[in-house]
Specification:
The complex is a heterodimer of chains A (about 180) and B (about 210). By secondary structure, chain A is mostly helical. Chain A is built from 9 helices and no strands. Chain A has 2 domains: about 1-100, Rna Polymerase Sigma Factor, Chain: A (Orthogonal Bundle), CATH 1.10.1740.10; about 100-180, Arc Repressor Mutant, subunit A. Chain A has helices at about 10-15, 25-40, 45-60, 70-95, 115-130, 135-145, 150-155, 160-175, 175-180. In chain A, helix 2 (about 25-40) packs parallel to helix 4 (about 70-95), helix 3 (about 45-60) crosses helix 4 and helix 6 (about 135-145) packs across helix 8. The longest helix of chain A has 25 residues, at about 70-95. Chain A starts with 7 loop residues before the first helix and ends with a helix. Chain B has helices at about 5-10, 20-40, 45-60, 65-75; strands at about 90-95, 120-125, 135, 155-165, 165-175, 180, 185-190, 195-200. In chain B, strand 7 and strand 8 form a beta hairpin. The chains are: A mainly alpha (about 180), B alpha+beta (about 210). At the A-B interface, helix 2, helix 3, helix 4, helix 5 and helix 6 of A face helix 2 and helix 3 of B.
Chain lengths: ~180, ~210
Amino acid sequence: MAPSSPSDTETVEAVLSGRPDAFAVLVRRYQDVLYAHAARMVGSADDAADLVQRAFVKGFERLARCREPARVGGWLFRILANECRDHLKSRRRTDLSVEVLPPLRTPDPGPDDAAREAELRRQVDAALDRLDPEQREAFVLKHVDGRPYGEMSALLGVSVPALKMRVHRAREGLQTLLEAYR
Amino acid sequence: MNDDLHAWLDGEVDGRGLDDETRREAELWDRITASLRRDVPGPAPAWIETRVMAEIRAKAPEGRRGGRLTWLLRPRTVRLSPLALAGGLTLVLVAASWPWLGLPGPWATPTPGPAAAQVYVQFMLQAPDARSVAVSGDFNQWAGDAVMEDADGDGIWSLRIPMEPGLHEYMFVIDGERWITDPLAERYADDGFGNRNAVLAVPAPERSS
């Protein structure tokens, strides 16, 4: 019979008791979901991988501060979420402060649905890049990951009303896009 | 963007009550979110684990591996450490900085030490219902092994810890699982995860002539 995988609590205890190699269990267990979130947040596979790496290393360094080892995955997610927000804020400072974004274009009418969808997507991505990082995070969790507000609240440690406000503001921020496509 | 559309996007109402214009906007939102969801990033690159573990192994010798033991055995200069309890719920005394607060305890004998002098800090917490209390902070790598004692069973837990001068963050751990912030700390710091750590300022010990 194959040995069962150690629980999160067992793994955290092993690392804290002096077996740092046990941390690889947590990396293998959570890297895909963390990477998926980072990629959707920052829109770059390379940046996402770097952020996940940084989040895991910070998680290791602060592991003794994880108050609920059974939920270390959510704790690591919050570290990554902070990394992603900081990355976006930094990127906005360096890029968007000087970049003039192209005007949104109303798509040409026609039967080419694929082209229309591609143009829509391009503009959605451009609009997402203009959102406040916290609003983008809330929008991605709600509408891309499809998480309910309660789950988002538990994951981020932010109240449901505050998250609703962020999502609403994100939608309002994308309203210009909707106007162009109506 | 009207409230009906927000409510529909939040899953609070169904689409039957939407007017035509709002329904068109709702359909566009469906297209947008569907487009975003089609982008599945795929599995994380394999090199993430390799790099993370390489970085961890490089950090471990001075961090986790033997860190606590090194901390416990490190030679220290001991200063006078009076024991006093002011009638609050919690109390942290920086012993060497306030020698006038009380009588020296049994551990108060000054010990000549190396140049890098440290001071004893007396942590105290009133927790009559606790089965165990530990103090955890940056000075012990946030481990829960600095266990406090309540020898006379009066619910006042205490522990003396030698510490380096400077600012230190700490919390109390009750029964090995409940982390609480010292409500009487002089200052606090955000721990980066929505909670506050207590902050203790340990002054440099006075030099004896």
